[in-house]
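Researcher: I'd like a structural prediction for the single chain below. Treat it as a standalone chain; there are no partners to consider.
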Amino acid sequence: MTNAKILVVDDEKPLARLICKSLSMKGCAADMAHTGADALALLENQNYHLVILDFKMPGMDGLETLKAIREKYPDTRVIFTTAFGDDDLAIRSLELGADDFIHKPCDLKNLHFRIQKTLKFRSLEAEVETLRTQVHDPRAPFIAGSPEMLEVIQRIEQVAAAAAPVLICGETGTGKELVANAIHNSENNPRRGRPFISVNSAAISENLLESELFGHARGAFTGAVSEKHGLFEVADGGTLFLDEISSAPLSLQSKLLRVLDAGEFMRVGESRVRKVDVRILAATNRNLLEEVKNSRFRADLYHRLNVLQIELPPLRLRGADVLLLTDYFVDHFNKSTGRSVKLGRQARSALAAYPWPGNVRELKHCIESLVLLNRGGRIDLHDLPERVAGAAAAALNASFTDLKNRTIEKFERNYFVSLLNNASGNVSQAARIADMNRAYLIKKLKEYDIDPSEFKR
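Model: Treating it as a single chain, here is the predicted structure.
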């Protein structure tokens, strides 16, 4: 209720003043109007969260005013006041769109409670609408404007409609689980609305991971005092997201392959074969081909998972997205903590210059700390962590040629990654798309240590 802007509309001026004074004491900004026409004039020039509207007024009565408010300002909440016992009028006000009603003479404590309840409900409505938008809009969870991320968003919509597994690759902190959620919640996904279960393979001990995924029978091992449904059963009909799939032990990988191929598994300590219909999304921050070469990951499972692939670019290759994300996180943590911290120009430049090895997660935690610990209302260069401020100082001390070369290197690496992604790792096709000599392209790929095989699908 605090900070709400409320309009009190009542021709009884002493009562209107009393209500406004009580609202001001609660931290609200309250204005008065004594006719329906005056109320509509104020609404035209100012945004009010809520209107307390009386019925009996000269000129337009309360119901006429209510109709006009609903037509012109549908997001403004309205509490209607009526004479005690006039239930028919109260019901009529609800039919015309009032959010609540209260009989006069009204108890201020009761009025404050109804205002708080109405505003809270409006806040929940807005939150639900935001979540509904995010469910239907694949771009909603992503703060991005770079071509690389817009390509990822487009790819999400493409793979969402398929039933095949998706392998999501990217460094730690790039948002792989966010991508998995977006795939599941896409309108193109026929499994949307069904279970989405996420499990981090690296966070569960090797001994327990099989039981966690496939369940176990009673008495299967010490401590198994009852049977347990595994996450594959819980996700039946929906999606199972296996994060850090490269951490899965080899003994478990063959069982994962069986589920992927036949939709079959057995609980630990049980011989009964069970069937599930689950779409698998998997993520890794490692090079799985290297893991295969080093016999740490099964080649057949890799190829089965890698039917569709999404490669997430690191934040250092996303250009202006760093500042888009910075502004978003500053605003987010300001709202969640009730602060109004601003970002200084030099601090902004330093944040843009830092390479963010921990990617979006590191940036988010850095901004959260800066907002929470700030005491002056402004984040300046000296407030930044030493690693971030140091990167900015190094950039400022670099020569024009050094900075130009860094910019070119960043562009070229970014370009070649996108090029190979579009060509599914086919170097000849990539060279044709880029109108570039194949031998020169191979030379540049070696220069940037880019392996075309990582992009094969």
